[in-house]
Amino acid sequence: MTMNKFNAGDLFPSISLPTFDGNTIEVGQPSEPATWRLVVVYRGKHCPLCTRYLNELEGLKAKFLEIGVDIVAVSADSKEQVAKHMEQISVSFPIAYGLSVEQMQTLGLYISEPRSEKETDHLFAEPGLFVVNDQGRVQIIDISNGPFVRPELNVLLSGIAFIRNPENNYPIRGTYQPSK
Description:
This is AhpC/TSA family protein. This protein is of the alpha/beta class. The protein has four helices and nine strands; from the N terminus they run βββαβαβαββββα.
């Protein structure tokens, strides 16, 4: 399978997904009053590390909102799987579901097959995290090929606060393109 490399500074692609609360969300678009969005791609209800990460993220939601960043979590799970997962997580940010393989590839995510039917019944994305700025561009990208590597949320929070401070004039990093 070929994998796209999603570049820092690119516009976040238009991806609309249904949410557990019955709405449809444009994944990369923040909700007012936030002007930035944190998009967390998680593996699914079968992943205990995802459950822990989402619950930890809920504990920092107010601090992210204080710096103008709202949150959405997305997975390839079905609505029924999300409903079962909601018994284990306590979050107030939108949980979107039904991420397709094509959408995973567009985002440059690693994709895995389930090890057994016990795990899940569909292909799923390994963890990914995108911080989308007020211009719709990806300010920060973190993509992993396994559940064990994810950004530490307090470090991410302080980093975004630093970037958002106009006095720091901090650019999108990792955008160097050699001359041809």
